[in-house]
Amino acid sequence: MAIEYLGLSAINGPLVVLEGVQNAAFDEIVEMTVEKKTKKLGRIIEVYEDKAIIQVFEGTDGLALRNVHTRLTGHPMELAVSEDMLGRTFNGIGEPIDGLGDISSDIRLDINGKPLNPVTREYPRDYIRTGISAIDGLMTLIRGQKLPIFSGNGLPHDELAAQIVQQASLGDDSLSSEQFAVVFAAMGVKYDVADFFRRTFEESGVSDHVAMFINLANDPVVERLITPKVALTLAEYLAFEKGMHILVILTDMTAYAEALREVSSSKGEIPSRKGYPGYLYSELASLYERAGIVKDRHGSVTQIPILTMPNDDITHPIPDLTGYITEGQIVLDRSLYGQSVYPPINVLPSLSRLMKDGIGEGYTRADHQGLANQLFSCYAKVGDARALASVIGEDELSPIDKKYLIFGKEFENRFVGQGNHANRNIIETLTIGWELLGLLPRAELDRIDTKVLDQYYKPTTLGGWSE
């Protein structure tokens, strides 16, 4: 028989203290009834002798020391999961908010997931096409990878996330029997941003294979810590139990980290770098490492976490720790955005560490790796030419440096920039890359095999574009 506890000992922000507790466990879910009518959920985050500290998901508004009845459930937070969740919209703790009724399922899973033996992981190979040339061509997303987007306040990461959801597929030649779906989790977003995502998915006709979890900026901060776990729990079920390939987009991980800092401060914990708790790394890792492919299972979980870097500082603890855990990053650039380049991806600090094993012959095309290496190399030289031009003037540059300036401008406008409605396949992306290299003398192309150059290289004039 469940024991019900009357009253509370203390209330501090999103936390409450309950005394006289018996057999309480860390991470256990509690049900709280306020004045015998309003129900709230909480989670035990600390146990000391007969005292339990509880995080209240819906916030502590309306709670007083004497008007709360608390019941321990005896289990951690669980989510009822089903394939019917695709096409639905939920709040940050997995409750439907689209007016279509509750999810009926006998399968309930612990939102913290189960430890995955590293030996059971398979190495990611096949690529996921996003339709965005800068990503598909130069920092290819591989199934089972975690590839974050580093952005900044005011940059179009929301538009980019929506475009990826609309366009993502299992490559241009994927088998029709392979099922693909998207789990989208938004944390701490404003109402107009949440409405933008919801409206965009509906208008583009992709809502039926997208499950959305929305935590608004005015929702309780504690709920923000649950949202990515709930989303990943559904993703793991669809991938490893139903054999689907799932792309998980998490935005904004900075809001998640700031919620973690706020709760840590409420608990009186000693802060680490910039006030974040010392366990920020392990908390981020517990989310990011839920991506991957498991042996003898047909599905995969691929993650694209999106985070806004405070003051565009890539050394800030959140992007810094994220970079250690994940396999690369996509960096959005404010100066490119100021030049109306969309998506404003700065390719030089961006990379995909798993790209080399998921492209080339049998995956994309045999010339892909060499072309990507050459585009990186040439664009790096553009920076040198621009720096020199700023000192001595563009007219004083050598002919080859002037060609690099032209290449850089066309690369940013035609390869990186493509608009938010262009959905390019991998052949279109590679073709544009070769047209760009045609602006430079063949002698400058030292990162590509001679046989590949013989097959694909053709001198290009600015008027000879064919997109």
Give a short overview:
The chain has 467 residues and is of the alpha/beta class. It is built from 12 helices and 21 strands.
Written overview of the protein:
- The protein has helices at residues 133-138, 157-167, 191-204, 221-240, 253-266, 280-288, 317-325, 334-338, 368-392, 399-416, 426-437, 450-456, and strands at 4-6, 10-12, 15-18, 28-34, 38-48, 51-56, 68-76, 78-80, 89-91, 108-110, 121-122, 127-128, 141-142, 149-151, 180-189, 210-216, 245-251, 293-294, 300-308, 328-332, 345-352.
- With 467 residues, it is an alpha/beta fold.
- It has 3 domains: 4-76, Beta Barrel (Elongation Factor Tu (Ef-tu), domain 3), CATH 2.40.30; 79-357, Rossmann fold, CATH 3.40.50; 368-456, no CATH class.
- The radius of gyration is 25 Å and the shape is elongated.
- The termini are far apart.
- Keywords: ATP synthesis, Hydrogen ion transport, Ion transport, Transport.
- This is V-type ATP synthase beta chain.
